[in-house]
Amino acid sequence: MLEDTEWLMDFAFFTDLLCHMNNLNVKMHGKNQFIDDIWAHLKAFKLKLNLFAGQLSKNDLSHFSRLNSIPSVNEEKLKNYEYGLKKLHFEFERRFQDFSAIQTELDIFTMPFNVNCEAARSGLQLELIELQSNNHLKQSFLNMPKLEFYISLSKVSFPNLISHAQKISAMFASSYICEQVFSTMNLRKNYFRSRLTDEHLASFLRINASHFEPQYKELLKMKSQFHSSH
């Protein structure tokens, strides 16, 4: 089989392609990502597929190192690979077309200072104009995470923008958190933790899945008495 040049070319091409797809998969399973981050990774990968197809049509194997290591890859094979990449790009477009339908909504959440106010729905237009005209808020947006920025906005001045941010940030971007929770549950709930109650397990899982810091000072204020032995 290793002497079959055509089989080796196919094997090398699909190995290179799967490496690119695996890189996409790793990026999409990162922690603390919102739906707009996932969509950005998908858009980038679709552009890469177009780039790959165009380069293969010119016999350029820059991004297919394993295929490039095989001498004299014939043009017919390259045409087949180019067609396969275009078909894969079409499938990505088809399967993730729902993202394209909410592109403007995602843009408002991701870059509210750059979005065209006229393209936004009427309930957000006036608040976007106020936001984009405020240089102080623009600087704050550049210097803090998106979620913290929207939390810092005035509920009186920007109620609709805050509501919009809550809706977008609440969308599940990937199954990463679910997988993380199940892994934690399997580690915590075992034979040696026989006294672990459902309530304790739920608390463990909530702490593990959340990145929020406990308000220690507020918790201490709620305590009326402290035990020195503790």
State the low-pLDDT regions, or none: none
Number of helices: 13
Give the helix proportion (percent range): 55-70%
Tell me how many strands there are.
0
Could you describe the largest sheet, including whether it forms a barrel? none
Order of helices and strands: HHHHHHHHHHHHH
Domains counted in the coordinates: how many? 3
Radius of gyration: 25 Å
Distance between the termini: 69 Å
Global shape: flat
**Into which percentage range does the β-strand content fall?**
under 5%
Structural class: mainly alpha
- Residue-averaged pLDDT, rounded? 86
Protein name: General transcription factor II-I repeat domain-containing protein 2
Domain HAT C-terminal dimerisation: 143-201
GO molecular function: protein dimerization activity
Organism: Araneus ventricosus (Orbweaver spider)
Which key features would you list for this structure?
about 230 residues, 3 domains, 13 helices, about 65% helix
Characterization of this structure:
- The protein is mainly α.
- It folds into three domains: 5-109; 121-170, no CATH class; 175-212.
- The protein is 67% helix and 0% strand.
- The chain contains 13 helices and no strands.
- The chain has helices spanning 5-28, 35-57, 65-68, 75-95, 97-101, 103-110, 122-132, 135-143, 146-152, 159-169, 176-188, 198-209, 216-221.
- It is flat.
- The mean pLDDT is 86.
- It comes from Araneus ventricosus.
- This is General transcription factor II-I repeat domain-containing protein 2.
- One of its GO terms (molecular function) is protein dimerization activity.
- InterPro entries: HATC_C_dom (IPR008906).
- Residues 143-201 form the HAT C-terminal dimerisation domain.
